[in-house]
Amino acid sequence: QSVLTQPPSVSGAPGQRVTISCTGSSSNIGAGYDVQWYQQLPGTAPTLLIYGGNSDRPSGVPDRFSGSKSGTSASLAITGLQAEDEADYYCQSYDGSLSGSVFGTGTKVTVL
Amino acid sequence: QVQLQESGPGLVRPSGTLSLTCGVSGDSISSSYWWSWVRQPPGKGLEWIGEIYHTDSSNYNPSLKSRVTMSIDKSKNQFSLKLSSVTAADTAVYYCARLQHSWFDPWGQGTLVTVSS
Hints:
The complex is a heterodimer of chains A (112) and B (117). With 112 residues, chain A is mostly beta strands. Helix content of chain A is 0%, strand content 44%. In chain A, a hairpin with a 6-residue loop joins strand 3 and strand 4 (47-50). Chain A is globular, with a radius of gyration of 13 Å. Chain A starts with 8 loop residues before the first strand and ends with a strand. Chain B is globular and about 40 Å long. The chains are: A mainly beta (112), B mainly beta (117).
């Protein structure tokens, strides 16, 4: 029941830059609600990666990770890709029609 | 450091009720945050279940609303989830998390609940 659409997978060589898109609608991202990003390493719980209207990073998250938003979409960029970045990534926002949080479909990042 | 820990049965019979508890340490359940549940079926994505505030206000995912009940126990600094009339489709890892403004942080480690006879 994911309302936010992400590509199933993206890949890149070490050191490269990859981006993950998150496409929503006028009731969530397009309505101006914040977009968050989470990283989920295999077998573990998701952890907050990017949050808030300024796309801030929690303490400890490298500045290789950055977020942006435009219209009804958002993006997560990973620069200087590292082997440890291999994980699933989810976007999340609020949906005014559902009156609750919605998650993206998830993207698996593979480091070649 | 805020930590959350889920607990409850790992196996629930079809048509039964799933019951989980999330213990909170490092923060008061009566602080200015909402307390949430999110689930993830095996090999699939994340689904928001709902959230509760210490005043007992709650918000539930419309797709689950008829079967979900959340509660808070201030004396034990914990909150709970009940999901009734479960089917195999409710098999998932269930996470509890603190909702700050619009983001979930931190998360519990998660607990797998299997619905099977």
